[in-house]
UniProtKB/TrEMBL annotation:
GO terms for molecular function: glycerone kinase activity. This is Dihydroxyacetone kinase. Residues 7-323 form the DhaK domain. Its EC number is 2.7.1.29. Residues 352-539 form the DhaL domain. Keywords: ATP-binding, Kinase, Nucleotide-binding, Transferase. PANTHER family: TRIOKINASE/FMN CYCLASE (PTHR28629), TRIOKINASE_FMN CYCLASE (PTHR28629:SF4). The keyword Metal-binding does not apply.
Length: 539
């Protein structure tokens, strides 16, 4: 898999340099490249307790991204997923430790424990006051005598960092860090493994499965579970966490493992609040990328029952922009639509043949969702099927609100529904189509002519014509042929849709930005949807 790197051996050095050159926080690095890669606060005066952490790279923004006022004083960067050397850790300690002493925050991996531990011993031989805590928040493997340190480490960085910034002594800071470690529980889930620079990607997780409890270096999880969506994924994570926490309010740290989109992370936050442990979550940190695993398509949840004082520490402002801040969980606020935007729907009425007709049409779009998405992926953004299916599902749910016995009002009502429930330009165009068809029907036009009036208005506003490679290529000939019956209309729609596969240029829609080589041989998904609908109506 291609990656935006130069040489594997230079990736950490260049990443650190990129961070230092663009950070809004006053940072510096120790001399000693390439073997010693330590990021330090450039504004540090050694008057307070120093916090030093680090480990293998690949977890960005951890750890260097959390160096700054109120958090870490120094971060020691190893190679990707490899512990930094004893000399590198010692260099970091010596650079930032003054009379107040230094706390090392170490994740529970053998290499980190050994190298940071030996560096601490050597620093003490220099006469420095150094203590060390080991974070072991991962609950994925309950029988493991040495649990891994994962994203819960950020709770330690933040709370200990706030105390140190406020002038607490080393014993107080160390005691607080140990208390946080004892109460923090974390677990992660991913749909895929990560890609280590310069190495082949491990294909361990089958399609339709998710791995629960995998490590931040891509280590295998405790089990692979069926994946059916965000809700089931969060339910599996919540079930593991629920057995380890009490009834007191907790702070949840919602961590992106690197390759999950911002949109997905917001969905996961929504599901966490609705989950079995949602009632126990009073505050959240994130969702954000904090302790990543390169490009892993996953997330982790860390819980901690923070006291009032610890909540204040978590909420205290810091220098590093990578810290997303602390937020209280609150009900979603809903504000009424402004006057004039709330749709005035006609009175609902029942007409079973019309209901059955509409539901049948909606089911065609729902059934075709994946096919149309796959077709749209060839010439657009791959969502035409989902857009149409979503609108169809919404229309089915709205059936009891529609004036089914009055076709004139029904056209307008469908247009209103689509304008609210169907996204993208196609939603607007179809809303215009049905609204104009309703206007035509109310002026006395028969249904066929009313539909053609809707098409004319849609073309006038949308600007597309036959031959422009849009749904018009199937809809226009179908309506022209409708006087000959539904079979003739279906045949015309199919011919129009198939013809779009021969058109090397699109003059409207998102496909207009796609080159001819990608378009040829693939029908326009909107035209294909129209063809399938008329084929259904023709029986």
């Amino acid at each position: 898999m291609a990656q935006f790197i130069n040489k594997r051996e230079d990736v950490v050095i260049e990443a650190v340099e990129g961070l230092l050159a663009t950070s809004g926080v006053p940072l510096a690095r120790l001399d000693g490249y390439p073997h010693i890669r330590v990021v330090v606060r450039a504004d540090w005066d050694k008057s307070k307790v120093a916090l030093v952490s680090g480990g293998g790279s690949g977890h960005e923004p951890a750890h260097a991204g959390f160096v700054g006022v109120g958090m870490l004083t120094a971060a020691v960067c190893g190679d990707v997923f490899a512990s930094p050397s004893v000399d590198a850790v010692l260099a970091g300690i010596l650079a930032v430790t003054g009379p107040a002493g230094c706390l090392l925050v170490v994740k529970n991996y053998t290499g980190d424990r050994l190298n940071f531990g030996l560096a601490a011993e050597r620093a003490r031989a220099f006469g420095l006051n150094v203590s060390m805590v080991v974070v072991d928040d991962d609950i994925a493997l309950p029988d493991l005598p040495q649990a891994r340190g994962v994203a819960g480490t950020l709770f330690v960085h933040k709370i200990a960092g706030a105390l140190a910034e406020n002038g607490a002594d080393l014993d107080t800071v160390t005691s607080a860090a140990r208390h946080v470690i004892a109460g923090t529980k974390s677990i992660g889930m991913s749909l895929d493994t990560c890609t280590v620079p310069g190495s082949p990607k491990e294909d361990r997780i089958p399609k339709g499965m998710a791995e629960l409890g995998l490590g931040i270096h891509g280590e295998a999880g405790v089990e692979q579970v069926d994946f059916s969506g965000a809700r089931s994924a969060m339910a599996a994570v919540a079930a593991k966490l629920k057995s380890t926490i009490g009834e007191t309010p907790h702070v949840a740290l919602i961590n992106n493992l690197g390759g999950t989109s911002v949109l997905e992370m917001s969905v996961l936050a929504h599901e966490l609040i609705r989950s079995d442990i949602g009632a126990h979550i009073s505050h959240v940190v994130g969702p954000a990328s904090m302790m990543t695993s390169l490009d892993m398509r996953g997330f982790s949840i860390s819980l901690y029952p923070a006291s009032r004082e610890e909540l204040a520490a978590l909420g205290q402002p810091v220098g590093p922009a990578s810290w997303p801040g602390l937020s209280r969980v609150h009900p979603v606020s809903v504000v009424a639509l402004p006057d004039g935007l709330t749709p005035i729907m006609p009175l609902p009425s029942e007409h079973k043949p019309t209901r059955d007709f509409l539901i049948g049409c909606c089911n065609v779009m729902i059934t075709a969702e994946q096919d149309l998405n796959a077709l749209d992926a060839k010439s657009g953004d791959g969502d035409t099927g989902s857009t149409l299916a979503g609108a169809a599902r919404a229309l089915v749910k709205a059936m009891d609100r529609l004036p089914l016995s009055d076709h004139t009002q029904l056209f307008r009502a469908i247009g209103l529904e689509l304008s609210q429930t169907m996204g993208g330009s196609s939603g607007v165009l179809l809303a215009i189509f049905f609204a104009a068809a309703g206007d035509g029907a109310s002026s006395g036009l028969p249904i066929r002519d009313a539909l053609k009036a809707g098409l004319a208005r849609m073309q006038e506003i949308g600007g597309a014509n036959v031959g422009d490679r849009t749904m018009i290529d199937a809809l226009s000939p179908a309506l022209d042929a409708l006087h000959g019956g539904l079979k003739a209309a279906a045949s015309a729609a199919r011919a129009g849709a198939d013809r779009t596969a021969t058109l090397a240029r699109a003059n409207a829609g998102r496909a207009a930005y796609i080159n001819a080589k990608q378009l040829q041989g693939h029908a326009d998904p909107g035209a294909e949807a129209v063809a399938r609908l008329f084929e259904h109506l023709a029986g």
